[in-house]
Design a protein that fits this description.
The complex is a heterodimer of chains A (432) and B (321).
Chain A: E1 3-13, E2 18-27, E3 30-35, E4 48-51, E5 56-59, E6 61-66, H1 79-88, E7 91-96, H2 107-120, E8 124-129, H3 143-149, E9 153-155, H4 164-176, E10 180-183, H5 188-191, E11 196-197, H6 200-205, E12 209-210, H7 213-229, E13 232-235, H8 241-252, E14 257-262, H9 263-267, H10 289-300, E15 306-308, H11 316-319, H12 336-345, H13 351-366, E16 381-391, E17 410-420, E18 423-427
Helix pairs in contact in A: 4-7, 7-8
Chain B: H1 23-41, E1 54-59, H2 64-76, E2 80-85, H3 97-106, E3 111-116, H4 121-128, E4 132-138, H5 144-158, E5 165-169, H6 176-187, E6 191-195, E7 211-213, H7 216-220, E8 225-228, H8 244-251, H9 255-258, E9 266-268, H10 281-284, H11 291-309
Parallel strand pairs in B: 1-2, 1-3, 3-4, 5-6, 5-8, 6-7, 8-9
Classes of the chains: A alpha/beta (432), B alpha/beta (321).
Chain lengths: 432, 321
Amino acid sequence: MTVTVFQHARIVDPSRGIDETGTIIVDGKKIAAAGASALNQGVPEGAMIVDCRGKAIIPGLVDGRVFIGEPGGEHRETIASASLAAAAGGVTSIVMMPDTDPVIDNVALVEFVLRAARDTAQVNVFPAAAITKGLEGREMTEFGLMREAGAVAFTDGRRTISNALTMRRALTYARDFGAVVAHETQDRDLASSGVMNEGLYASWLGLPGIPREAETIPLERDLMLARLTRGAYHAAKISTEMSAQAVARAKGEGANVTAGVSINHLSLNENDVGEYRTFFRLSPPLRAEDDRLAMVEALRNGTVDIIVSSHDPQDVDTKRLPFADAADGAIGLETLLGAALRLYHNDEIPLIRLIEALSTAPARLFGLPGGRLSPGAPADLALVDLDEPWIVSEAGIRSRSKNTCFEGARLQGKVLQTLVSGRTVFSAQAGN
Amino acid sequence: MTDAPSLPLYPHRHLLGIRELSPVDIELLLDRADAAVSISRQPEKKTSTLRGRTQINLFYEASTRTQSSFELAGKRLGADVMNMSVASSSVKKGETLIDTAMTLNAMRPDILIIRHQSAGAAALLAQKVGCSVVNAGDGAHEHPTQALLDALTIRRAKGEIARLTVAICGDILHSRVARSNILLLNALGARVKVVAPSTLLPTGIAQMGVEVCATMAEGLKDADVVMMLRLQRERMAGSFVPSVREYFHYFGLDAEKLKAAKDGALVMHPGPMNRGVEIASEIADGPQSVIQEQVEMGVAVRMAVMEALLDPRRNRDRHSA
């Protein structure tokens, strides 16, 4: 097997609390050594040497919430196109949501995804399966069999399970298989026809609003059920201070609870909607600036465990519509790291904490092999210039859909090379 | 209009909302509209200001009043007017707003009038077509010509808008008329009060430049103008208010409640009215009502708006884009 030595890199490995200059030796598919003292044994014979002066190496990002159009919506995104976007963004593992057509709610679909990923994907793709059949919120799916087939978590994707008993049983049953139940919460009745954050801005635009309580009320219910059942519950995409407080309280009481936030809710607020810009129509909706700051603080203090892209490709047929008629969602795989690094460059979040939330923590949460640079770990990593500025442009987007919230945005921090199991899947120099 | 060329050039290409207008823009449109009133009162009502120009009315929501007002305004200015009947067109076959807009745009109209149930539809259309766009009502967002015609009606009756107290009563939450009026009346220096059950007030209403009143007695006190809003039928039974009976009892305008306003206060309604729901018949047809004048001013305001947008002094190469 070939050996590659990355020298003089700033190595950021949250799994060992390391942020130091050193060397990473990749031997075949694995990391052989990483850190300041990795060269104690000397450079292995015949190794390829890469000088990484001024650059950083981080464990490849693990994106815990990615919507893909395959099967059923391949015009929006395929597993292959999503994986190209991921590789360009330094993302080496993605957890794929079950909101496909057909829904990933049985063993055959889990196997389909894994097969398609093996044959076409550049990065690791891990399917999350539906909690309920057809995402209908009623009958439980085969957690055990799908878990054995390779489903890494259970979620009803964009949908919220309104029936508390169904949720209780799912949490209880999932516990028997050590499976995480990840849930986006939005009370359907309270949100009603709402399309953006409720407030003065929505009122002037004449758009029906979604109150913050629509997220937090079902979340509070879930957190109580998590305490009752002792099941592993993941609040998949929180966006309000109230939700962060609820999660912090549950964690304080020892519940087996984790939380995620989308990069959009760390970077943007409701004012970005501007004059009915549908690319900024998201679920949960972009909130006020106070909420965004509360999310940053929740990330900093550990209430929020992971950052996700919530990559959600939408085509012109679902976005080139009046705001109220458009679909929710924005792509995010390629801008996840650059947008997150804003928090580092602004001195809001330390780099090691940021990479932990983007890689180490989600890998641990979903039981995935990556997320670390320790010896023996799979060589899933990204070589990054943390300071290089770039401007996001639609023309450069690899995703099949172009609905980015960051068009024209100035980001600082660029992925130069991405490795998955030791294989280079993206190289900025190669221009692929 | 004979004196139109002497008026200052209007600086906007579209009329999407009152928000984008300065007080000067508003006064300019009202001055133009004032002049247009006399045209409709002549036996010979047709002028040639917009001769050769094409106006398309694209109405996604049924609206007899607004659509015929725009149609008549265009015809009195000499424009060729086409009404797109959405109910029987390709829109029913699933064509999107933008595709319809592109198709109509290819026919090279000079002005598109759009009414749509979704907020922001007029702005979306304006981004995609090469001609002027007039918002004739988009969801709960804005209805600028309604606010202008209301202002013209008030100005002709009261002399000026500044320092008047205007009470807007009813379903503020769902009303584009209320939003446009709040913006316009504030721009011209009026004091604006709103009266509604709290379920029909938008979030943040207190920061929208109005005084919020819970009762008609409080809201109509010192009012020079009382604007009533229509309550949609589907919102009457149980969802926002418990019943028509209870709504009329507390918020319907009758002679007793009107006494709280100033003597000679104007009573206005954008129509169509629900008699006995938001307004008693005796008031709607009474001496203080200017509801018919509003309709007349509607034609004048729309003539003024279209003339201002299609001013021949502006460069005419917009089609070449």
